[in-house]
């Protein structure tokens, strides 16, 4: 099937069936809201991939790609749906790179992407529920499901000799899905969750929530929240009251703003987020640094890969129509084919134009499984000396 699709694409290109066009990719992320400190790097990384393809000048007979941004807010499903609707019906985007948080991603998928037949590739929506969402083959993600993250969390805590924890999670699809996944994995590993309690974002005072967590006890507090919202508030209140002094930080809690706001008291806390020590990750970080982007920021690499996959799938299909390239995205992401690293998008476009196969490895060692999601690699770290220090990869 892959050979047939690529051959068809090559024939169409050579026959001039496709003509140069201005392709639009919507980039919808929470530029305001609980992840606003990390989304700028995510958006910039996606646009770096777009600039790389435009510089090559060989996508679909010389078509150019422009990015159109929209604000998902991360937490307001109605606002996110409205923003996505504007991108699709107003701006006429051919695909969406996003969204970021799981709840708004699901809302956009069901209310905008599926009804309009538009491909979505999320770099950071991790809820296990998205694995089984009715998507008509339109939804993909370069971040792994939290079903995988929960197991990684349990492994890290067990390896560090921690057997009893309290858990607080942001009260939405992402937080609950991750907390439940972790609790099941930790129990299977012999650990004990003393309390698994939700918290609401946007509150000025988390003393009541922290009092309940402290009453239940635990060697540390697992915080499954957002770096610029309730998760940070829970940590600060815990430190202020002496309830907990060490925290496990999930992927949504990773960001320099956390260290900047909490300070030295965060030293000794630890966690993990999607990441790999592959050659592609190193190359991406060098490229990002040269472009003035923090390539180590959470989900920046996944955003570059998400945008790259959209454009490579278009080239493989010989079409910018989602109905066509949704069928080639898994093909360009996986073997067999010529391995493609960050910075090699021009090479990939040429191979595809000539009817060849590629295996897009990218910045995150991309391997899409099952319902079009990342198999999952994680970078484990500890906060030390006011910085996130990498301990290893899983």
Strand order of the largest sheet: 2-1-3-4-5-14-13
How many helices in DSSP terms?
A: 14
Largest sheet: 7 strands, mixed
Distance between the termini: 33 Å
Which spans of ≥5 residues are poorly predicted at pLDDT below 50? 1-18
CATH topology value of the largest domain = Rossmann fold
What's the name of the CATH homologous superfamily of the largest domain? Response regulator
Number of DSSP-assigned strands = 16
Please describe the topology of this protein.
Elements (H helix, E strand, L loop, with lengths): L1 H13 L7 E8 L9 H18 L7 E8 L5 H14 L4 E4 L3 H15 L2 E4 L16 E6 L1 H14 L4 E7 L2 H16 L3 E8 L7 H10 L3 E5 L5 H12 L5 E3 L6 H7 L7 E5 L4 H12 L9 H18 L4 H4 L3 H5 L4 E3 L4 H9 L4 E3 L7 E2 L3 E2 L3 E7 L2 E7 L1
Parallel strand pairs: 1-2, 1-3, 3-4, 4-5, 5-14, 6-7, 6-8, 8-9, 9-10, 11-12
Antiparallel strand pairs: 10-15, 13-14, 15-16
Helix pairs in contact: 2-11, 3-4, 5-6, 7-8, 11-14
Describe the structure.
This protein folds into two domains: 2-144 and 278-374, Response regulator (Rossmann fold, 3-Layer(aba) Sandwich); 147-274 and 377-393, Response regulator (Rossmann fold), CATH 3.40.50. 42% of the residues lie in helices and 21% in strands. It has 14 helices and 16 strands. The strands form three sheets. Strands 2-1-3-4-5-14-13 form a seven-stranded mixed β-sheet, sandwiched between helices. A seven-stranded mixed β-sheet has the order 7-6-8-9-10-15-16, sandwiched between helices. Helix 9 (256-262) links the parallel strand 9 and strand 10. Helix 5 (146-159) crosses helix 6, helix 7 packs across helix 8 (230-241) and helix 11 (300-317) packs parallel to helix 14 (345-353). The longest helix has 18 residues, at 39-56.
